[in-house]
User: Which sequence fits this backbone?
């Protein structure tokens, strides 16, 4: 009996059996070399499917549509565009999302009821349906199309974000693939940006829902680029069962392996998002332990990675660690100043609430790395959590002050 | 019978009778032309006094000390330094704050029990007590010293922030003065940055507490520069009674006039803080009305002015108004998308949830002004609130990525 989980080389959303994808440029985004703005993901077999959606009360039309479709717990395709979020677009937006799905369904020869929609980009603008209608016909889905789909979802992302993990549990083998996008308005709250996950494992709907929630809890829900939660956030998982296993349900070895693999994949993808956050030059990992509860540890870790002052200091490798304790102080979690330990990289800067003398140059070098690891111990209980963020750079401001102009 | 409230030309914290102030450079901040870093505010008569303090659970030593002192409801002086916050400095920090107060008390020949302390600057560093000990002797307080005090409190502020209002109610005349500082780690939460308010009115302690809370509710609590609440926040008011009036208490005409004047002064000072926010190039005023409650309106307005994406768009005069509705959507307040009206300056961009077509160039010009006014109507109830913020510029990042280096 054995469980093996490993990342697939160049793996992506079409790595699991039976999934294909493709993309094209229809003209929503500004024209540029190799730019893509419309993609389709398809499973040749019907999938058990579920999703998690933004908690923003402004919900983009494709969020509303996909939530409705997923009530039945199944799906076989997703159509996605970038450049326009189809958010805050009223009744017209819903009509447009439904039409986009109809067009994709016709093209793919599947029922529109089995097609989900996702859009990302500017809020408050209508989808250019003429362009979509003309362009959608050009999409060719194939087993190799996962990477194209990843590119078609990008907005301010500088790199596509995708991966897959292969899982072997005893004699059952399955794969989970995923694709996601960033890079701004990233502060998922019980949901996430856009992420599509695929697997050839057969998975019962109840366990699939549970596993997705658990995986996003430790991954997408623990990242922030800028503290703004998007109206377009969604993470969708589709399981087509082509691995031929007995559907995975709670409490089995397969369930444990599936959960572990899915969580690893989601953490990997979530870290891709923050590493490529708008203007980001480094990844910051913050682990808070010794909190009164896991919820308090999560809140503290998220507050630290969201603080503009902490993020700006990381950007300049400024050894201003006082901002980290100030952020945890305002997070609302229980703390006792005299019990706090703080470590940045391998350097202990605070022990039992006392600032230690340390080599300032060493701290600056630590802060200059591509990845900075912070460990904050509150020493009050056993709650622990890890969150990932990025630095705040001048470029973030430049990108976001000229988004439309 | 008449009530007159007017701002005093070049008014400041020493405009009310009996208050004097002074400042010096002791060497905590980097040396520069005309730099000051230690100041003293003194009333020649004992004051009824109260204060509001940061809700950050990391409380700077002078916050702890001043909170204790104010339990008795009285004070006659404040000693303040900039360049070092004396925050997260443990027992030594408390000893240092007490010593700073002792030194000031000796110099001023008042009881140390009547002296408050405030510090602002870097967190996690001890006060350089030798410098303070040597320097405090040099402070000369005078009736003209209010402006020097304002300068001594500055950190990344580019201008001192001070004002005074003269009030006449029937035949009673009194003045309220104030001084405050920004310019980063500004997101007051049931308290504020550093602000000292003075008045020569005689005011009963109960009403003084009530009036201060009410004034900060609509002023300092409604501003944000960067979403980070400082461990050093405090607003203190001292009333020395030299106007000779009968102490003001609840329910009188004098109380109404005092409240109105104090609130106006605090709103003025709070707007000074955001206008001079780190890297800020403009003031943004957001009024949310039609919310289910005043609390919801406050939350929505504060969320909008705190959104990095909204702020960056304002910086570049980018007409990306979708970010405003996205921010209110994630704020947690009750909204119905199809009821929302949004106006930027004189331009209506959303009516009943529908994006309107408008002159994009006109919106861009509106966004280019020094002051941008946003009106968001939720059309659900009667809750309303106004908040003030600033834009997010590349310079904010530059300032905060090089604070210590």
Assistant:
């Amino acid at each position: 009996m054995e469980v093996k989980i490993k990342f697939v080389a160049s793996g992506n959303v079409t790595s699991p059996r039976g999934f294909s994808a493709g993309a094209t440029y229809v003209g929503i985004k500004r024209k540029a070399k190799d730019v893509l703005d419309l993609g389709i993901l398809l499973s040749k077999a019907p999938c058990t499917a579920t999703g998690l959606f933004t908690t923003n009360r402004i919900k983009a039309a494709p969020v509303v549509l996909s939530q409705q479709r997923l009530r039945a717990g199944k799906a076989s395709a997703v159509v996605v565009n970038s450049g326009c979020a189809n958010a805050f677009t009223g009744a017209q937006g819903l009509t447009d999302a439904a039409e986009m799905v109809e067009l994709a369904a016709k093209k793919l020869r599947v029922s529109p009821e089995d097609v989900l929609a996702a859009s990302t980009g500017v809020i408050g603008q209508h989808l250019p349906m003429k362009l979509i209608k003309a362009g959608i016909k050009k999409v060719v889905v194939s087993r190799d199309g996962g990477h194209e789909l990843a590119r078609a979802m990008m907005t301010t992302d500088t790199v596509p974000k995708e991966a897959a993990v292969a899982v072997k549990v005893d004699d059952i083998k399955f794969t989970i693939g995923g694709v996601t996008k960033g890079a701004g308005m990233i502060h998922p709250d019980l949901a996430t940006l856009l992420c599509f996950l695929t697997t050839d494992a057969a998975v019962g709907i109840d366990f699939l829902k549970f596993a997705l929630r658990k995986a996003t809890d430790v991954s997408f829900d623990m990242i922030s680029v800028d503290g703004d939660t998007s109206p377009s956030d969604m993470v969708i998982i589709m399981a087509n069962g082509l691995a031929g296993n007995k559907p995975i349900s709670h409490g089995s070895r397969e369930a444990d392996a599936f959960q572990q693999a899915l969580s690893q994949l989601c953490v990997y993808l979530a870290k891709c998002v923050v590493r490529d956050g708008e203007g980001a030059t480094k990844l910051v990992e913050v682990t808070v332990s010794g909190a009164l509860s896991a919820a308090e540890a999560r809140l503290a870790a998220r507050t630290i990675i969201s603080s503009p002052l902490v993020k700006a200091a990381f950007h300049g490798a400024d050894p201003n660690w006082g901002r980290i304790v100030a952020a945890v102080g305002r997070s609302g979690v229980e703390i006792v100043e005299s019990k706090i330990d703080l470590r940045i990289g391998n350097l202990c800067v605070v022990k039992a609430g006392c600032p230690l003398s340390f080599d300032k140059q060493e701290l600056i070098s630590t802060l200059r790395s591509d990845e900075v690891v912070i460990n904050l111990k509150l020493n009050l209980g056993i709650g622990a959590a890890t969150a990932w963020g990025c630095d705040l750079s001048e470029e973030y401001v430049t990108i976001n002050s000229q988004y439309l102009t």
